[in-house]
Structure to design on (417 residues):
């Protein structure tokens, strides 16, 4: 049974939290005491219906304001697939929360209020999903019950969005009319929209094909930990633990180790449950090599003739996340790329991107909280990178303030020099 990571996005009051609550409720993925608790809370607040949004809006501030602030993660399972849902906030001031919450998603659900149609926040969330290279996008037109389940309303929104989406890099786009409040087309097919012949939302989530989304060609194995012998019985054991970031690795494969460039062969591979015949992204594994090489945390195991780019000069799209400071030319920060740490200097800016209009401002000299721009960086030691389009793991990094040890930026590599 595979795992689908999905993120929800949408404007305030579009019904993201209600949709997730409906998914959990109709798929029987919540406990009776949880249901009793939200029923009691809904009754005390005077809500007309059981407010399923309370399943995800866990912060007291969220419940009081009726908005999502933090990224709430929920887990559920059907007979066909496991799911991790990230309920990300819609407000522009929480752009950083959406970037972090959706960065690992296989699929994004963008909700649109059928009464309002496509608005500025809808475009912004769609752009962020495109920027993060989320392979699959579902446009869920919610609150169809408030427009009398009118097909013309749905088709008009669909046509407008398709025209907008031509400016974005979206590989797979699906449209589903729903009512999260009443459950239409969420888990069960709606009797009120017999004109819709597509899948329900849950059926689509269960059937969407994600096996080909990850890069299975370029072998990338960042070393996280060196497993040394812990007893005389295993005195000759030396393995390299980490998470496969790309490609497929098998015993007998010839591999190279960066930065040394030495080559060897894979002796065996150990997974969480014992020895395995192959390891592939995103498996956690321990690799044993035939030769005793000097390998440490931050090194990269890859194919001899298919290696990432070793570089100290990066050009990346950076989302700035710090309230306390700005990113400016000359800023010095720690950079973490896969398992490798270095220090980075901001050389200059290409442009700042207006995520509402997609306008590029080439005269920018800084990035403030929640702003995104294309930045050139110089690192103190080589990083082994791919472009973000090629590999979302080896093509991304975080920036850390060395004084406070706080993560202040997230980057997606666009080019190397």
């Amino acid at each position: 049974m595979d795992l689908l990571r999905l993120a929800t996005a949408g404007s305030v009051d579009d019904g993201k939290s209600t949709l997730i609550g409906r998914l959990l409720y109709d798929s029987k993925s919540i406990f009776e005491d949880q249901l009793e608790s939200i029923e009691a809370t809904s009754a005390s607040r005077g809500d007309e219906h059981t407010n399923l949004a309370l399943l995800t809006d866990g912060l007291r501030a969220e419940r009081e304001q009726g908005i999502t602030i933090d990224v709430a993660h929920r887990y559920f399972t059907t007979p066909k697939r496991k799911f991790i849902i990230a309920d990300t906030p819609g407000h522009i001031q929480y752009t950083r929360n959406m970037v972090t919450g959706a960065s690992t998603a296989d699929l994004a659900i963008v909700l649109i209020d059928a009464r309002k149609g496509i608005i500025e926040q809808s475009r912004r969330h769609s752009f962020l999903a495109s920027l993060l290279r989320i392979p699959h996008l579902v446009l869920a037109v919610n609150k169809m019950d408030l427009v009398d389940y009118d097909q013309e309303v749905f088709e008009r929104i669909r046509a407008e969005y398709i025209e907008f989406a031509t400016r974005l890099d979206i590989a797979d786009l699906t449209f589903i009319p729903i009512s999260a409040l009443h459950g239409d087309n969420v888990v069960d097919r709606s009797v009120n929209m017999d004109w819709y012949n597509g899948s329900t939302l849950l059926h689509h989530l269960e059937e969407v094909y994600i096996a080909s989304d990850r890069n299975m060609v370029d072998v990338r194995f960042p070393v996280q930990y060196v497993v040394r012998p812990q007893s005389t019985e295993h005195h000759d054991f030396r393995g390299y633990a980490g998470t496969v970031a790309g490609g497929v690795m098998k015993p007998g494969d010839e591999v190279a180790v960066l930065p040394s460039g030495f080559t060897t062969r894979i002796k065996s591979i150990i997974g969480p449950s014992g020895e395995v015949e192959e390891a592939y992204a995103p498996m956690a594994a321990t690799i044993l090599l035939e030769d005793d090489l000097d390998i440490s945390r931050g090194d990269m195991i890859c194919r001899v003739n298919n290696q990432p780019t070793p570089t100290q000069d990066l050009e990346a799209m950076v989302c700035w996340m710090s309230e306390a400071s700005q990113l400016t030319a000359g800023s010095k920060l720690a950079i973490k790329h896969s398992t490798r740490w270095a220090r980075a200097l901001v050389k200059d800016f290409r442009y700042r991107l207006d995520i509402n209009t997609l306008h590029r401002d080439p005269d920018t000299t800084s990035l403030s909280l929640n702003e995104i721009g294309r930045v050139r960086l110089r690192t103190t030691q080589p990083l082994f990178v791919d472009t973000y389009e090629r590999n979302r793991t080896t093509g991304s990094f975080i920036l850390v303030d060395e004084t406070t040890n706080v993560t202040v930026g997230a980057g997606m590599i666009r080019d190397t020099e």
Remarks:
- The chain is about 20% helix and 35% strand.
- The chain has three domains: 3-207, 220-303, 309-416.
